[in-house]
Amino acid sequence: MIVDCHGHYTTAPQALWDWREAQVAGKKPDAPRISDDEIRESIEKNQLKLQKDRGYDITFFSPRAGSMEHHVGDARISAEWSRVCNELIHRVCTLYPASFAPVCQLPQSPGVEPAACIAELERCVEEMGFIACNLNPDPSGGYWKDKPLTDRWWYPLYEKLVELDVPAMVHVSSSCNPAFHFTGAHYINADTTAFMQFLTSDLFRDFPTLKFVIPHGGGAVPYHWGRYRGIAQDLKRPPLTELLLKNVFFDTCVYHQAGIDLLLKVIPADNILFASEMVGAVRGIDPETGHYYDDTKRYIDNSSLSAADKEKIFSRNARRVYTRWKPA
Amino acid sequence: MIVDCHGHYTTAPQALWDWREAQVAGKKPDAPRISDDEIRESIEKNQLKLQKDRGYDITFFSPRAGSMEHHVGDARISAEWSRVCNELIHRVCTLYPASFAPVCQLPQSPGVEPAACIAELERCVEEMGFIACNLNPDPSGGYWKDKPLTDRWWYPLYEKLVELDVPAMVHVSSSCNPAFHFTGAHYINADTTAFMQFLTSDLFRDFPTLKFVIPHGGGAVPYHWGRYRGIAQDLKRPPLTELLLKNVFFDTCVYHQAGIDLLLKVIPADNILFASEMVGAVRGIDPETGHYYDDTKRYIDNSSLSAADKEKIFSRNARRVYTRWKPA
Q: What kind and span of H or E run contains A100?
């Protein structure tokens, strides 16, 4: 079984984006009108087709990350938008329960306590069967004005994540800072930043069962694994395996063979979760291979990893990390 | 010949740091008093010893990056501090002309036009024989408030760099943003960010001979080389080799064999410059190898690269990029 733990509803019907535009313009629109047929059309021609073409079985599916836009409007705007997006994800997963499992967006807002997200998290998990959430380490959208993920500011939300046994993918949204291209810089930087925050803290002593997935292959971390091992050593921290690897997992959204080979070489197979993020940041076909850049299964298939380790990455680890996921 | 293009004077005598403290406290101190013997002591026990132990011949040597602190004080403070630091580098390189070649810090300041750095750059290059400079893409120290490196805001400085034929290493300083650990997150993020700024702009059409060195192995870029090739393709940009690789070079400050192997595999040898950044971000010995993490020459020696490509990385490319450097 092939489980893609990282997919966003980037192809949602236009009515969703129109609703968002009206909301941000202050027009207080009624709930977006989207028929089941429109959802089917948007999914069957895109994610579901690609799943079949590529041999992926199921995608853990969340609202478009770039559109979470926690920096736009206030907490009320964010709460409303999160509810709309999460309910649409719920509909997709109800229509295709074997192919998609729901992951929610949180109604974060810059400077607002993360505890304010608990109600929506509970609603999604307990009432609609969501299995995980995306957690934005920078609700300010590229200015990094909120506290590090290791600050007690976040603890009430972590207590709820632990209680519900729900993992969080650390995922920023779009950048309103002109310094950062969103998918090319902000996403990757955020992954690296979160890892380094974890490295310098005792967060996982306080929350031994809290689980984070760092997407995009862990940002720069595996490439600089020696740097991180060395910095931890200089700081008199425990070895990374002991300090972090019971709680932190990396996905495989790395879009070339050499990158995946590095990831598989330096990070233990127990800490890697298969993912492609399709349809996402890179949509073209690599002229060097003739295949989609983001068809990451090919790179893992082509790697020299053992069959047992491949199975861990493709599905076994997902069962362990996403404990609320019950294959249909 | 082994040329380390990236070293900072992290071991400068205490009088320098005392002077800085007094300066920041508004005490208007006289020039720091540092004897030649103090300089010799600080260099011979550290960088010079390590050069000899490791078989490096020369280091391109600049003030401590984390201490540039462009975000501290105003433009006048930054100008004064840059002059003090650069003059000390000049003294080191005058004492050891065969072992160190000087690279200057620029007197940047948040919100101040980069053109204000031209006088100090000219003084360093024309009067003191400096061969390159470090350029901070985020003088705000982790809040990224200044314009991207591709904005015309920077053009007067680039015109001078081109006129003097001096390359710039893109290097941030310390972070005053608690989200970012400086050597573990801010440095690496800045490298990735700068590359992505270059990718989305036509800067090198305007400055076909401008040369940037992106340190720390290019941040996350080589690990995500497929992502960057794919994003460029989606954005209808030219292939990266054509768009950037006449102007952008990566150093080898990657502190483990697997990371260096990836770098050497995906980036053309013509675009890689040997560097270790010693004595720098990681100072310990890797228990997995028994050698210093930052003894990067070992990783390149151990790689499967051809002797001709190794020679490019160790010295030939440095001669081409740092044209003002004349080996003693």
A: strand A100-105
